[in-house]
Amino acid sequence: MRPTWAEIDLNSLKFNFNQVKRIVGSDVCVLSVVKADAYGHGSIAVSRALVEAGTDMLGVATVEEAIELRESGIKVPIVLLGGVQPEEAELVVRYALTPSIFSPSSAEAINRYAYRVGKRVRFHLKVDTGMNRLGLGVDEVYCFLNCLTSLRNLELEGVFTHFASADSDSRDFTLKQISSFNLVIYTLKKAGFSPRYMHMANSAGIQRFPESHMNLVRPGIMLYGSGKLGQWELKPVMKLKTRVVQLKSLPVGSPVSYGGTFVTKRPTLIATLPIGYGDGYMRRLSNRAFVSIKGFRVPVIGSVCMDMTIVDVTDVPDVRVGDEVVLFGDDGIKVEDIAMWADTISYEILSIIGKRIPRIYV
Ligand SMILES: *Cc1c(COP(=O)(O)O)cnc(C)c1O
User: Fold this and answer.
1) What stretch(es) of the chain map to CATH 3.20.20.10?
2) Ligand 1 center to 162 CA (angstroms)
3) Which residue, 346, 281, 334, is CA-closest to 311?
4) Closest ligand 1 atom to 100 CA
């Protein structure tokens, strides 16, 4: 097997989950977000560990992600955060999933199917308070509630909204979203609805806006040990590792990798690593990133290829073929560093780690 792997530390995952519990308190339920294969960590193993740790619910983006979890024996409620298509109503019922609904037409479609098979479907109403992506407008809620009273096979179990900028320096926008959402709750109650769950906080909201905790929170990135915004410690869950597969000594003036974007300025010892952009180690990291070998931080030189990456190991004493290399998650190289070098966020770096890379659970 190619010596490239991702170590997933399930104890660190549970530690981070317990940090969430510690922040929000025991009265607040937790919906752990495991969309996009649990941010690249492997959704089945991660979900099992989170269920063991006591998560009340799981959240995914698509029906396929939810079905994968049900088929692996996961029994806790699974909320479809990205909504459902009318033609997915049958799967929602068959796998006992909790859809989020944000339009009268999708509500009607699910109600129609649930009526046909004699089931009641619990759902969460998604309200858009400023993200301007998915959700019912605040001014459409009242009208939606009127239409809901005739949809006998639907039950409003939850209502939620999503923050656009809870991690940004300015708190104003998030505070506006919180007050819009409170208005929505007021409208609901006045219309005689009292959904069991009210929720808005993502990881940033959990850490920075206690007033957004309501009675359910939806942590994602912080479970995986990134997105730290408060005094609470989080532990990285994924360590991405590989091994040196070849060493080569090059004279001054040698171009390295495709296009020769790096040319040696000294006699250079290079090491080739069996990982590339086809594994999610982005090409953007060419001539920008660092890796760690035997505790030494060494630069990526030349273009990252689809399956291989080259680093300068001239300054690493006694380096050998087969030596372990840390790409991130250990030895002081954080996933946030990779994100900075690639001009993106840690979410993207984690979630694009490819299928070719085996996840080893420790
Ligand atoms: C992805 C997602 C989350 C988790 O967000 P983090 O920033 O990773 O904590 C929460 N809620 C919804 C609706 C999401 O789509």
Assistant:
1) 10-224
2) 8
3) 281
4) 13
For the chain (362 residues), the mean pLDDT of every run of 10, in chain order, is 96 98 98 98 98 98 98 98 93 97 92 96 97 93 93 97 96 98 96 96 98 98 97 97 98 98 98 98 98 98 98 98 98 97 98 97 96
d(CA 63, CA 60): 8
Q: Atom 6 of ligand 1 has which residue's CA nearest to it?
A: 220
State the distance from the centre of ligand 1 to the C-alpha of 298, rounded, in angstroms: 34
How much distance in Å is there from the Cα of 32 to the middle of ligand 1?
A: 9
Question: 224 catalytic, yes or no?
Answer: no
What pTM does this model have? Answer: 0.97
Quickly name the fold that domain 238-361 has.
Lyase, Ornithine Decarboxylase; Chain A, domain 1 (2.40.37)
- Contact between 325 and 291 under an 8 Å Cβ cutoff? The reply is yes
Residues having CB within 6 Å of any atom of ligand 1:
33, 35, 81, 162, 202-203, 218-221
Closest CA to 251 of 235, 234, 269: 269
CATH number (3.20.20.10, 3.10.129.10, 3.30.43.10, 3.40.50.800) of 10-224 reads 3.20.20.10
Q: Which listed residue (14, 35, 126, 239) is catalytic?
A: 35
